[in-house]
Specification:
Strand content: 25-35%
Helix content: under 10%
CATH topology of one domain: Jelly Rolls
Shape: elongated
Number of strands: 35
Oligomer: single chain
Length: 539
């Protein structure tokens, strides 16, 4: 027999109809009931229904066995849509499975069909309906339970909340002491109400926005933000330090230390005590007057920049002491600026790589910052016909100069040679990466071809040179022993920044290396831009 999609139940082929008074064999009747049950049908009295609810008695806690009640015949197999109801004999304490009669235990799922029922999902004495669905548990089959609502809500006090597993639990609204007050939180006696207590605490809280009308704030600790539109402000007579932002002028009494921010130029603050600034103090369009009387000291910051002082500032009976410099901070640093239109006696100025001092009114002069190279011991030069530096031996050999600067320079190079008879002459030149606007210098070369050491006199040749390339004014020499002394003195104007290297050069390798004598030197110092003509009170 079978039950088709049109709800028509058809008897097995060859079956015959029964007639009144006919005796039906028990085997035939039981076979019909079994077939009905297999197809998801149940018989209650004389009524026949597909997928009807079959009431059962249940035993077990987590592995529940259902026994069909009301002499319902045993079900030989599970069929999709079978519905069994029961009262739970115990509350579950682990994963729940269920079987009907002697059939296999299958997993029991909550209403979502994916979560297996477990501890607390089955409540002792509560009514349940279990529906078999063949597609559950990866098509292994299983049951979905439906607890209904009334049994879950009947014993609750307070606000009912579903836990997502088909079970309702009671909840009560509560507040936090000194922050939120809750009245009738369970809702039993009426609607719950929320209110702020008379004394409100905001520990660990942030209040953003809003308008507060005439509030009274006791012992506040205010961090950051902006306060404005104060019409007056009172400072307590206790404690010793305050951080206050003033909207209007305030006169402070003694024994106060304040950190103050003034919003605009229309605010004035008068102090009767000390004022300490932790950060920069800046004014725009106004002047700062520092008045120190008696032996009071004015302490300047150890780092940072002092604002320009307009006019004349006097430090009568005061001593300005500069803090000792460090490897990263100089005791005193000047910034290049515009020179005084009328040089003031005693002034020190700095402009574009040059320091100026004015010893008397209107008579400004260059203060030499001398750069120099020298030797502390004799050093060996090179037996070569190419240019070689004045100062061999592994030390510094050149000056690094900034652009657009003029320099005075002067140098004396003394050398001896005791070997080599190849004919040669001797010249002077300047090399390096700096580009020159011009150069002009007095050159003197003294050479003695009989002696091998100093002191000695010799023939000196002098000329004026205007190029940095080799200037050779000596006669040829084939002497193994000779001494020479080179003197230069002049002005060089640097166009592009770079190095400047004093050199000398034999016309041919003499056959023996020269010895550059100790304390030979070359020095230079800046005097102005590369177009400077004069400095001083000149006519």
């Amino acid at each position: 027999m079978s039950y088709d999609a049109s709800n028509i139940y058809t008897t097995a082929s060859g079956s015959t109809s029964a007639f009144p008074g006919q005796v039906i064999a028990s085997a035939t009747w039981n076979s019909i009931f079994t077939d009905l049950a297999t197809n998801g049908l149940s018989v209650v009295g004389a009524a026949l229904s597909r997928a009807g609810n079959i009431y059962c008695t249940a035993t077990g806690t987590n592995a529940i066995t259902l026994a069909l009640a009301n002499a319902f015949p045993a079900i030989p197999a599970y069929a999709n849509g079978q519905n069994f109801s029961f009262l739970a004999p115990a509350s579950s304490s682990g994963a729940v499975t269920l079987r009907v009669g002697a059939l296999a235990f299958l997993k029991v799922f909550l209403a979502n069909g994916t979560t297996q029922a477990t501890t607390g999902d089955i409540i002792s004495g509560q009514y349940y309906e279990a529906v078999y669905i063949a597609s559950l548990d990866a098509a292994a089959g299983g049951f979905v339970i439906d607890t209904g609502l009334s049994s879950g809500l009947s014993s609750l006090t307070g606000i009912a909340v579903g836990n997502g597993s088909g079970v309702f639990v009671g909840r009560t609204l509560t507040g936090t002491a000194a922050e939120i007050t809750v009245t009738n939180g369970s809702g039993v006696a009426g609607n719950p109400t929320l209110s702020l207590p008379t004394a409100l605490t905001f520990t660990g809280k942030t209040v953003t926005g809003g308008t507060y009308t005439t509030p009274t704030i006791n012992t506040p600790d205010i961090n950051g933000g902006t306060a404005d539109s104060f019409t007056s402000l009172s400072i307590r007579s206790t404690a010793s330090a305050f951080d206050v932002l003033f909207a209007n002028g305030e006169v402070m009494s003694t024994n106060r230390t304040l950190s103050i921010a003034l919003g605009n130029a229309n605010k004035n603050v008068s102090f009767g005590g000390d004022v300490n600034f932790g950060l920069a103090f800046v004014t725009t369009g106004g002047a700062i007057t520092l008045t120190a009387t008696g032996t009071t000291n004015v302490t300047l910051p150890t780092t940072g920049t002092l604002a320009t002082l307009l006019g004349v500032e006097g430090f009568l009976n005061k001593t300005i002491t500069l803090t000792a410099g460090t490897v990263g901070v100089a005791p005193l640093t000047f910034v290049s600026g515009t020179l005084l239109t009328s040089p003031a006696a005693g002034s020190v100025e700095y402009l574009t790589n040059v320091f100026y001092t004015t010893p008397n009114t209107a008579n400004r002069g260059v203060s030499p910052s001398v750069h120099f190279l020298s030797l502390t011991a004799n050093q060996t030069g090179t037996d070569t016909a190419t240019a070689q530096v004045w100062f061999p031996g592994g030390g510094a050999t050149s000056f690094t100069l900034p652009a657009s600067t003029s320099y005075f320079f002067e140098g004396v190079l003394a050398a001896t040679k005791t070997a080599g008879t190849t004919s040669n002459t001797l010249g002077v030149l300047f090399a390096g990466t700096a580009t020159l606007s011009s150069i002009g210098y007095d050159l003197t070369i003294m050479r003695n071809d009989t002696a091998g050491t100093f002191p000695v006199s010799g023939l000196a040749t002098t000329t004026w040179a205007e190029v940095a390339t080799n200037i050779d004014v000596t006669t040829a020499s084939t002497s193994a022993n000779h001494v020479f002394e080179i003197k230069v003195k002049g002005v060089v104007r640097i166009n592009g920044a770079g190095t400047f290297i004093p050199q000398f050069k034999y016309s041919a390798a003499p056959g023996g290396a020269p010895t550059i004598r100790a304390n030979s030197y070359f020095r230079m110092y800046p005097i102005g831009t590369n177009t400077v003509l004069s400095v001083g009170n000149l006519v």
